[in-house]
Design goal:
The protein is built from three helices and seven strands. It has 138 residues and is an alpha+beta fold. The protein has one domain. Strands 1-2-3-7-6-5-4 form a seven-stranded antiparallel β-sheet, with helices on one face. The longest helix is centred in the C-terminal third of the chain and has 17 residues, at 121-137. The model is unreliable at 1-6 and 81-85 (pLDDT under 50).
């Protein structure tokens, strides 16, 4: 978890993205958290989660900060709406054959790039299977 100034274990780029992610994914009545962990091999990812007052954690998105993830994402819809203005909401994309929704980082330093992949049943299932595999190794 990280507040306005703390971000233990996160890369500097992820720390800079946190305020934007927190606002775009905020769920009223939930604490927002950004966590980082290994996703097999040498790839580490950061995930945004919402935590209920009772302590139930629900993944909201996986950051697209590792280049290995960014290379797999293919946008399937136009980046502009009918007025020519950019859209701040989720964008349709594909990772392999899987349909996903992503958020774009429309920074001033170049073209929009994938910011985060929104959680969906496919991502939830794979995160759960990966977590179980890690626990069995202990």
């Amino acid at each position: 978890m990280c507040g306005s100034v703390s971000a233990i274990g996160l890369e500097e780029h992820e720390r800079r993205l946190w305020p934007q992610l927190r606002e775009r994914l905020r769920e009223p009545g939930h604490m927002m958290a950004l966590m980082r962990g290994a996703l097999g091999g040498d790839v580490e990812v950061a995930a945004v989660v919402a935590v209920t007052p009772q302590g139930r954690v629900r993944p909201l998105a996986v950051l697209a900060t590792p280049q290995e993830i960014v290379q797999e994402i293919r946008l399937v819809d136009d980046l502009r709406d009918s007025d020519g203005a950019g859209q701040d909401g989720p964008r349709r994309a594909k990772i392999g054959d899987y349909d996903v929704e992503i958020l774009l980082d429309e920074g001033v330093d170049g073209p929009p790039r994938p910011l985060a992949i929104l959680a969906n049943p496919w991502i939830d299932q794979h995160l759960l299977l990966f977590a179980r595999t890690l626990w069995r190794r202990r």
